[in-house]
Amino acid sequence: MKKIILLFLLTFIGCTSNEPKEFSEKALQDMLIGLDSSKLTFREVLMDHKGKKILIDVWASWCKDCVTGVSEIKKLQKEFPEVAYVFLSVDFSKPSWKRFITKHNLVGDHYNLPKGMNSGDFVDFINLGWIPRYIVVDEKGGIQLFNATKASDKRIVTALKNKI
After folding, report:
1. pLDDT exceeds cutoff 60 at 3
2. Which CATH number is 21-161 given?
3. Given phi > 0 = left and psi -120 to 50 = alpha, else beta, which region is 22?
């Protein structure tokens, strides 16, 4: 019985320690498209918010869970106005992406991942298999929370409160 418990603990610890603490160079170099059709790298987006905590929301206009998460994100924005909110859409349809932002009055920085949710260096790095996906980046650019799939996840609030 002790061996089974030890094996379980080692497996659990091994699984939780695999979350990266910083973005790979390839992910940082991945190209994003701005609302104004400008092109910039993920690194440039992070540098725009250097010294600030960042909540990244990876989403799509067709995603029911993403729509549900909007109200929670707005609550977080009220509670943590000092945080930078970066929305990364995996929509292929630019008009649908932009309509969603306007319809839901999403306040923050908006970019599109032009290769969608199944391809691209950033998507590969975060192993995107489900949206929405929330990532918290600390003030030094390190990954504080890597994998939350609900905006109501208590770990998001904990990560936003934590100071480095």
Report:
1. no
2. 3.40.30.10
3. beta
